[in-house]
Amino acid sequence: MIPTTSAFDAARNGRGQDPVVVVTFPTLGLTYSNRSGITGLAPTSTFAQMPAGASQQVSDLQGSATVGALNLTVVDVNRAVLALLGTKQWYGALALLQIGFAGLTYPTDFITVFTGVVQSVTPTDDHTGFVIGLRDFNRRLTNQVYGTGDDGLTPTSATNPKTLDGNPMALVIDLLENQLGLASGYVDTAAITALQNGRLSCTRMLFSLQKSVNAKTFLEQELLRPNGLFHFARYNGAISVVDMLAPPTPVGIAFAFTQSNIVGIPKFRQQPIYNWVQFDLDYDGSNYRDTEEFIDAASVAKFDLQAVLQIQSQGLRSNLQGASRAGITARRIFERYAGGPANQITLVAASLQPVIVEVGDYVTVSHPLMEDLDSGTLGWSDRVCQVLNVQANWAKGQLTYDLIDVTAMLKPAFQFAPDTVPAWPTATAPQRQQYLFMADASSQQSDGSAAGGIF
Amino acid sequence: MAFSVDLPGGWFDIPDSVWASGQNAVEDQLVALNSMIRFAALGDEYFAAAPQKDGGTVTLPQSADDGYGYSRSECIYGFSVQASPDPATGKNGGPGDLLFFDNYIAQDTGVVQSGVNYFVQGGQDTATRDGLLNVLILCRRGGGNKAAVAGTPTSGVSSGTGGGPAGGGGGIATGGVGAVVGDGQGSQGDGKDGHQFQIV
Lengths: 455, 200
Prior knowledge:
The complex is a heterodimer of chains A (455) and B (200). Chain A is an alpha+beta fold. Helix content of chain A is 16%, strand content 35%. Chain B has 200 residues and is mostly beta strands. The longest helix of chain B is centred in the first third of the chain and has 16 residues, at 27-42. Chains A and B meet through strand 11, helix 3, strand 19 and helix 7 of A and helix 1, strand 7 and strand 8 of B.
C-alpha cells in the first residue's frame, strides 16, 4: 500500500475529485502536469498527454511479474525539449509519476504511484513533440548474473561452478544488490527480510550453477516459485517480494471495495484447476534426482480430472528438507486451486479513491449481486482478495484491478504460550483464542471440544 | 496413529527464536519440525541380514516400524566372516591351511562375493568359494542418490565448493581377521527417487 498524508486521504475519499497528474524527471529538471496553479508545483509544461497508465501483471503460480511500462507524450513547445536531447542523458534517467488533487500542496501531499526510468524518446508522428517511454525497475532484472564461478576469476562452467547456499531470501537480496547492483533504496529489504525471518526461516536452498543465468528467470523460477512467492516493482521503484500462497495472519486490508465505489458488477475470470503437483528437486547439473508428487485425492475424484502442475527447483534438496518445503507449496496450491476454479475477478473503481492499492495488497470485496460460487448463493460480503494486477489509466482517471479471492486461505493465528498460561481445562476463553494448545490425534482438546487448526 | 517418514527428510536448523512464547505458530516451521522428528526417529535404521554365502544377494530390508521398504541406493553393507568352510558341507573346500579371504559385497547391487584360499606347505594353493558372512545393513532414507550438500552455515549466503555428506554409498571395511575388503569406493546408484503422496 502506498503511504499517504492525511490531506491526500481526505481528498481521495472526498467527492468531486479533481486529480492532478505529474510526471517529473528529477535529473533532467523537467516536470509535466495536466494542471497549473498547484501550490509548490512549477511544471515545465502542461502541454502533455497523460499516460494511459502502467500495468504490472503478476502470476501466483509462476512467481513472475511483467515489466510495467507507460508512455508520456509531450508537446515540444518552442522546441525546448529537442534542445535538451543534446545536453542531457535521457536514457536511464529517473522518472516519477505522481498523483494529487487540486488544493493539495506539491510535493508534500502528493503520492508517487510509479517510479521508473526512461527507456525511449521518440518524436511523435506529426513531429510536434516526443513520446517518452518509461519502464519500471523490473527491466533491470533481464541482466545475466553469476557469470563468474567459484574461483572468482573465470566464467561459470561445469568445471568451475558457482555455488549458492543459503536462505532463499538472502539469495534474493544478493541477486538484487550484489549481482544487479540495485541501490538499497530500490530493494524492499524490509519485506524480504521479514520473509526470511518469518515462515521461510527454516528454508535453505543450494545451487551449483554451471553457467550464468538470466536474473529474472532465476529469481522467479528458482528462488520464488518453489516457495510460493512472487516479486513486483513497488510505487517507489523498489523490487519487493510477496507471499502469494499464504496470506498473513492477521491480514491487513488496503481498501474495501463495495457497490458504492465499483463501476457495475465485478466480472469473474475462469481459472484452471490444479490437483496434482509434480515437484522435481535434487538437481545434479543435468537431471533432477528426486521427484515428489502431491495429489489432492478429493479434487481428483470430484472433477474426475488429474490436472498437473510441474515445478522444478534446482535449489531445493531433499536432504535439506526440500521435500517438506515442496509439500507446503503444493498444499497451498491445492488450497487455492484444487477445490474448484479459484475466484478471480476484475473490477473497475468508480474513482481514484483506491489509488493507494498496489499489486500484492489485500482488499475486501462486497457486492450484493455477485455470485458466491462456493455456497451457491447471491452476494459477497467482505471477501478477502489479493491484487494480481493494477491497470491505471491516468488520462481517464480510471483504475482497474484483477483480484483473486483468498478468503478460504485465511487462518487464525495462535501463539506459543508462556509458562503462566495453564492447561486447556483451566485456560480462560481469551487464552484459548490466543495460544496454541496441543490436541489429541482426533483433533480434540482434553475436554472433548474440537481443536482449531493453524493450517 | 500410523507413524511414517512420508517424505525424504534431512537436517535443517530451525532458529530457536521461532519457538519463543508470544511467537505465532507457523505452518512452515511446524512442518519442518515434524519432518525432522520423523527423520530422526526413522531416518537411520540398521538390520542384521541372514548369513550370506558367495553368489547370494542381500535382501532389501523393510522397516519394522512403519513398513517402509528400502531401495538399494539407501543401503550400505558391513560384513564380517562368520565361518570359513563351505556352508553347504561344513567342510573346507581345499586342503591345507587358510591362506586368505576374498570377501566383498557390491554396494550398488548387494551381490555377495566370498572366497577362501587354502595352502599346503610346499604345494599349490586352492581357491574356493567357501565362507559365510555376517551382514549388517545400514539404511538411510533418501540417501544414496542425492547431490552433494555443502557443509556450510545456514544463515546468509555462502559461496564456494562444499564437501559434506554426499549420498553415494561407499564400501564398508569390517572384515574379520585376514579379510580382504573393498576399496571403500562404492559406486553410486543411478536410480531416480520418486514418491507419491495424497493430501486428504
